[in-house]
Amino acid sequence: MIVTRFAPSPNGSLHLGHAFSAIVAHDLARERGGRFLLRIEDIDGARSRPELAEEFRADLAWLGLEWDEVAPQSARVASYTAAADRLRGEGLLYPCTCTRAEIAAAAKTVGPEGPVYPGTCKGRAVDTGEPAAWRLDVAEALARTGPLTWTDECAGVQQADPARLGDVVLVRKDRETPASYHLAATLDDAADGVTLVTRGRDLFAATHIHRLLQALLGLPVPTWHHHPLLLDREGRKLAKRRNSPSLADRRRAGEDGLTLAADLRAGRFPAGISLGE
Ligand code: GLU
């Protein structure tokens, strides 16, 4: 059975881009007689606002969506720690004490997620008293798994190329946020039985890393559906902190959510908003 999901982070209200993403995931499941899951990705300790989860549920119900809710990330920290311990035990993680500024200064290339970590701490003895993040040794990991492919329903078969993101962080320095998005989301999608990972094209590149993690951890391999993003007049994706009125504001102002959902499905977007490539 097909299982899709919508996995918002409660660090700001949802906007039209999220509504579109949730509708795509919901409809893909419903069209094929499958399940649509809601997962609250709430492990960003500093920025997470737990009260927003309730607002998200009200927004999705207002849009006329129905879902099964699975455990939030904060309830699954033990599984992230266990997976990280396993990879560390296999010699695939190394500690890194670099700051953001140091990485920006040392990076030779900029990848899809910003400056690519140049491997400064790889093979370096790090004082264990210092707070350290743990990074995946992507070259070593790939040497062990061999070449990998993954399939996006829209873009077709992809050769996994995780090196373009560099040695990503799997365990964050900040102890309040024990796992990075890459590790947590990959483990959760497997635990939730997600068969079609549905999300925006802004996360396309992340899938190269997720595919590698699946191979390393022996997780099932889903198919992906990276949908186009809603863009503003300047061609930028809608952002929580920028230009887009929140779904909660629209809902509280008395707008009809079912009409909005029907418009988004039909490609009728509000003035100034368009669907990207
Ligand atoms: N929690 C992520 C976000 O809100 C989405 C992650 C995903 O869909 O894989 O951007």
Essential attributes:
277 residues; alpha/beta; Rossmann fold; Glutamyl-tRNA Synthetase, domain 3; 2 domains; 3-stranded parallel sheet; 3-stranded antiparallel sheet; 14 strands; binds glutamic acid
Walkthrough of the structure:
This protein is of the alpha/beta class. The chain has two domains: about 5-75 and about 230-275, 3-Layer(aba) Sandwich (Rossmann fold), CATH 3.40.50; about 75-180, Glutamyl-tRNA Synthetase, domain 3. Helix content is about 35%, strand content about 15%. It is built from nine helices and 14 strands. It has helices at about 15-30, 50-60, 75-90, 100-105, 140-145, 180-190, 205-215, 245-250, 255-265, and strands at about 5, 35-40, 70, 95, 110, 115, 135, 150, 155-160, 170, 195-200, 225, 230, 275. A three-stranded parallel sheet has the order 1-2-3. Helix 6 crosses helix 7. The longest helix is centred in the N-terminal third of the chain and has 16 residues, at about 15-30. The chain binds glutamic acid. Keywords: Aminoacyl-tRNA synthetase, ATP-binding, Ligase, Metal-binding, Nucleotide-binding, Protein biosynthesis, Zinc.
Assembly of the depicted chains: single chain
* Ligand roster: glutamic acid
Q: Please indicate the count of domains.
A: 2
Strand residue content: 15-25%
Structural class: alpha/beta
CATH architecture of the largest domain: 3-Layer(aba) Sandwich
Shape: globular
| CATH hierarchy, class of the largest domain | Alpha Beta
Biggest beta sheet summary:
3 strands, parallel
Low-confidence stretches: none
**Alpha plus pi helix count:** 9
Please, what is the CATH homologous superfamily of the largest domain?
Answer: HUPs
Indicate the CATH topology of the largest domain. Answer: Rossmann fold
Family: Belongs to the class-I aminoacyl-tRNA synthetase family.
Pfam families: tRNA-synt_1c
GO molecular function: ATP binding; glutamate-tRNA ligase activity
Protein name: tRNA glutamyl-Q(34) synthetase GluQRS
